[in-house]
Write a structure and sequence with these properties.
Layout: E1 2-8, H1 18-30, E2 33-39, H2 45-52, E3 58-63, H3 65-78, E4 84-88, H4 94-99, H5 105-114, E5 117-125, E6 128-130, E7 133-137, H6 142-145, H7 148-154, H8 156-166, E8 173-179, E9 182-194, E10 198-199, E11 203-204, E12 217-223, H9 228-239, E13 248-253, E14 255-268, E15 271-291
Parallel strand pairs: 1-2, 1-3, 3-4
Antiparallel strand pairs: 5-6, 5-15, 7-9, 7-14, 8-9, 8-14, 9-12, 10-11, 12-13, 14-15
Helix pairs in contact: 1-5, 2-3, 7-8
Length: 292
């Protein structure tokens, strides 16, 4: 019998029906798991994992990208060395897409009971853990400012529409980027440090180029498009995974430092990451294991 902690975020993008929750519980129990259920609400997923993960052999999370990122952060902070299972129930589900996890609860549970742990790199954003992205500039406000109702009804399109609405306010930031002994600088409207192949439906990285456990991040830098047509061309390049254009640059590094001339807003795993004039991001190699 395996002592299992199940963390459910009832407010995630798609949510879970009572039937789906019942299916998850019955399948886990039928496969030798003793399950204790925790719902987020008074405590966040990170707080629940931090306080209780050490009492269990497995932590299972159901929710969106923010939920699983919070659980991972809580488990790491707790010092518990246990695998994590993930049942996607969000809008973008970037982490699930990257790991090829089913969005159907019953299938996701089959992976948890029959799969194997896969090691993943995790990032440090200052003193904060992040799982798949830390970013600044265009679109970074979209993930946490787009209404939940729009995410539920429109899915990925909600992010794209919100990004188009944000375009008039896009401001290029003069940025010095130091990475693994090299330095570049420029005026960028978007910058992201990524350990994923999918970000909010508009940024796709070639799975053949991305190794989630190689100790390296992918760093995407985008210069400002001059007009709406150039913006759409840029979006098309991103959709086609073309990072060789004049306005897009793709780098790899285990450690990167961004320096700005003024405070710049960041998002970390889709949540507000605060404003900073200087940010240092480091890779924590194979810090966590997800069952795939």
């Amino acid at each position: 019998m395996k002592n299992t902690m199940l963390i459910i975020n009832p407010a995630s993008g798609r949510g879970l029906s009572k039937v789906a929750i019942g299916t998850i519980l019955s399948q886990l129990c039928e496969n030798g798991h003793i399950v204790t259920v925790y719902f987020t609400g008074k405590l966040t997923a990170e707080e629940l994992a931090f306080e209780h993960a050490g009492q269990y052999e497995l932590v299972v999370c159901t929710g969106g990208d923010g939920s699983i990122s919070s659980v991972i952060s809580g488990v790491l902070r707790s010092g518990a060395s246990i695998p994590i299972g993930y049942i996607p129930a969000g809008t973008a589900n970037d982490i699930a897409t990257t790991l090829s996890l089913s969005k159907t609860p019953a299938e996701a549970v089959k992976t948890i009971v029959g799969g194997a742990p896969k090691a993943l790199d995790i990032g440090f954003f200052g003193e904060k853990y992040f799982t798949y992205i830390a970013a600044f500039g265009a679109f970074t406000g979209v993930a946490y400012s787009t209404p939940q109702s729009a995410k539920r009804s429109l899915g990925h399109l909600a992010y794209v529409l919100a990004g188009l609405a944000e375009m008039p306010a896009i401001k290029a930031r003069h940025t010095v980027v130091e990475y693994d002994g090299s330095t570049i600088s420029g005026d960028f409207v978007f910058g992201a440090v990524v350990n994923s192949t999918s970000v909010a439906g508009f940024l796709k990285l070639d799975p053949q180029r991305v190794n989630l456990a190689d100790g390296m991040f992918e760093i995407v830098l985008v210069r400002q498009p001059l007009d709406p047509v150039a913006f759409l061309d840029l979006m098309a390049s991103l959709a086609m995974q073309n990072y060789d254009g004049d306005n897009i640059q793709l780098l790899q590094a285990s450690c990167v430092k961004f320096t700005f001339e003024e405070d710049v807003a960041w998002t970390v795993d889709g949540e507000d990451g605060g404003v900073h004039s200087e940010v240092e991001i480091t890779n924590s190699h194979r810090a966590v294991s997800i069952i795939v």
